[in-house]
């Protein structure tokens, strides 16, 4: 079946289920860390290379922008709404998966910004995965990064969200349905 004949509701549902899995996993792992660890505590997982290190992050990646938490709240809200509005155009499982992962991650961190201390709209994000010589992050961040990497790969491969593949020939550009 070519990309244009695929029902958009199937892909929206697939993206929504992916987002739900990322979101639930994110919120569950954060709740587990909050219940079982003290703020600032660090536990070895794989030697010194991977540790659980419980922190509250008021900023973005690498704690950047700590004084502008509300900006990140707005960005996550806009990204989430944008993805939800765009999803009905998607006719590709890899695109649905990538967008669902970004949506689930954005909603996970947005939940922290809205409902965690010190409160709306400047709540701090629970981070706990620490890779040596790198940042401390969480499951939502993993969903966002993996989803964006998948989308970038799809774009590099010429895979369009509508299920077509863009391929350039010598004389003309053309689109084909997969």
TrEMBL record:
<comment type="pathway">
    <text>Protein modification; lipoprotein biosynthesis (signal peptide cleavage).</text>
</comment>
<keyword id="KW-0378">Hydrolase</keyword>
<feature type="transmembrane region" description="Helical">
    <location>
        <begin position="70"/>
        <end position="88"/>
    </location>
</feature>
<feature type="transmembrane region" description="Helical">
    <location>
        <begin position="135"/>
        <end position="158"/>
    </location>
</feature>
<keyword id="KW-0812">Transmembrane</keyword>
<feature type="active site">
    <location>
        <position position="141"/>
    </location>
</feature>
<dbReference type="GO" id="GO:0006508">
    <property type="term" value="P:proteolysis"/>
</dbReference>
<dbReference type="GO" id="GO:0004190">
    <property type="term" value="F:aspartic-type endopeptidase activity"/>
</dbReference>
<keyword id="KW-0472">Membrane</keyword>
<dbReference type="GO" id="GO:0005886">
    <property type="term" value="C:plasma membrane"/>
</dbReference>
<dbReference type="InterPro" id="IPR001872">
    <property type="entry name" value="Peptidase_A8"/>
</dbReference>
<feature type="transmembrane region" description="Helical">
    <location>
        <begin position="95"/>
        <end position="115"/>
    </location>
</feature>
<keyword id="KW-1133">Transmembrane helix</keyword>
<comment type="function">
    <text>This protein specifically catalyzes the removal of signal peptides from prolipoproteins.</text>
</comment>
<dbReference type="Pfam" id="PF01252">
    <property type="entry name" value="Peptidase_A8"/>
</dbReference>
<keyword id="KW-0064">Aspartyl protease</keyword>
<keyword id="KW-1003">Cell membrane</keyword>
<comment type="similarity">
    <text>Belongs to the peptidase A8 family.</text>
</comment>
<protein>
    <recommendedName>
        <fullName>Lipoprotein signal peptidase</fullName>
        <ecNumber>3.4.23.36</ecNumber>
    </recommendedName>
</protein>
<feature type="active site">
    <location>
        <position position="127"/>
    </location>
</feature>
<keyword id="KW-0645">Protease</keyword>
């Amino acid at each position: 079946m070519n990309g244009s004949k695929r029902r958009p509701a199937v892909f929206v549902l697939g993206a929504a289920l992916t987002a739900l899995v990322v979101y639930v996993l994110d919120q569950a792992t954060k709740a587990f860390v909050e219940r079982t660890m003290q703020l600032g505590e660090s536990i070895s997982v794989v030697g010194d290379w991977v540790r659980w290190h419980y922190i509250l992050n008021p900023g973005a990646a690498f704690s950047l922008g700590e004084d502008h938490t509300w900006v990140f709240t707005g960005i996550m809200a806009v990204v989430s709404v944008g993805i939800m509005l765009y999803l009905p155009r998607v006719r590709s499982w890899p695109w649905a998966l990538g967008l669902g992962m970004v949506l689930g991650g954005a909603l996970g961190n947005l939940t922290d910004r809205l409902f965690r201390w010190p409160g709306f709209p400047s709540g701090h994000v629970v981070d706990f995965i620490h890779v040596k010589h790198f940042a401390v992050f969480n499951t939502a961040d993993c969903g966002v990064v993996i989803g964006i990497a998948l989308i970038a790969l799809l774009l590099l491969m010429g895979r369009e969200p509508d299920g077509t593949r863009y391929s350039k020939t010598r004389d003309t550009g053309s689109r084909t349905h997969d």
